[in-house]
Specification:
By secondary structure, the chain is an alpha+beta fold. It has twelve helices and 13 strands. Strands 1, 2, 3, 4, 5, 6, 7, 8, 9, 10, 11, 12 and 13 form a 13-stranded mixed beta sheet that branches.
């Protein structure tokens, strides 16, 4: 068994493994597997690929795409994304015919070790609540529950040819709003979540190069005065998918019902104009007001996902 970094030539095999391991998630998001090669090509091309290559040379890559290979066949993967305080582990999967051989555990160990080498204190991952096999594996390794993410979905109206904010109170997010929004985001997090998943500006304003790689476009809106917003929401649409993504809305207590409804309708209108047929919103369990607002607006819960965290031994 060989464990190594992902190569561009692995795309077709990885796409096949993702369909075997994450059928529910891919079906919900409407991914077209043929576009995976395009996304991978962008990751290895200019400028993203050149930047990642340089960072690997100086031993500071922000992403590790790990695969397990046997006889020229990809039989397992895990992806590691290094954040400021933690490493986020995603796409942990093993080919069904190779399960029970410790491949997932080995890949996890390598990802966790990469976190340690880069000075991260925590390793974090998400797992579907009903995926007992994977959840038990993580708990056995010492991961502990941190939060629950509710996946809510709603169908969108027929594509609209023109887009405009749904209410005069709604405006485009401004850079002046970021500091206040980050404070609002932190205030809504329980202390144990904030310690590990402290929000960063990239959460509210994703880097342009990342959106370019993913063939994604996004927009964000606020209500209230610039620099002191009363509400916020972000929408993202990725070309290879049929579903758009809605960030969990944020509101100050002073936000009015008109502002709340206007922000939500603006984001949904933008997604419809972009071509999304459905919308997905991931909302943490502690965002009670956002959960209730979305349910009142016709969103239905598809499943829950547990965020688990492992405190890394630095010895």
């Amino acid at each position: 068994m060989i464990f190594r970094e992902l190569r561009r030539s692995d795309a077709q095999q990885i796409s096949h493994e993702m369909q075997l391991n994450f059928a529910q998630e891919l079906e919900l998001q409407g991914w077209d597997p043929e576009h995976f090669q395009t996304i991978l090509d962008r990751s290895f091309g200019f400028p993203a690929g050149w930047v990642l290559t340089f960072l690997r040379v100086v031993r500071r890559p922000p992403v590790h795409l790990l695969v397990a290979e046997e006889g020229g066949r990809i039989v397992g993967t895990t992806f590691l994304f290094l954040q400021r305080t933690h490493g986020y582990i995603a796409a942990v999967m093993t080919d069904p015919s190779f399960r029970g051989r410790g491949i997932a555990s080995t890949l996890l160990s390598r990802a966790e070790e990469a976190c340690r080498r880069r000075g991260r204190t925590w390793a974090v991952l998400d797992v579907l609540t009903h995926n007992k096999v994977a959840r038990d594996l993580y708990l056995k390794r010492g991961y502990r529950p941190l939060r629950v993410q509710h996946w809510l979905t709603r169908s969108l109206a027929q594509r609209r040819e023109a887009f405009q904010p749904a209410a005069p109170e709604v405006r485009a997010m401004d850079k002046q709003d970021l500091s206040s929004l980050l404070e609002l985001y932190r205030a809504q997090q329980p202390p144990e979540v904030r310690e590990i998943l402290a929000p960063e500006r990239s959460l509210l304003a994703p880097p342009n190069y990342l959106q370019s790689v993913m063939a994604a476009s996004s927009a964000a809106w606020c209500t209230g005065t610039r620099g002191s917003p009363s509400g916020y929401v972000r929408a993202t649409f990725t070309t290879p998918k049929e579903a758009g993504n809605l960030g969990a809305p944020l509101f100050q207590p002073r936000a009015t019902p008109v502002e709340r409804e206007g922000l939500l309708e603006t984001a949904l209108g933008w997604l419809a104009a972009s071509g999304a047929r459905t919308v997905i919103c991931e909302v943490p369990h502690y965002s009670v007001d956002a959960l209730q607002m979305l349910r009142d607006a016709g969103f239905e819960e598809r499943w829950t996902m547990d965020t688990l965290a492992l405190k890394l031994d630095r010895s």
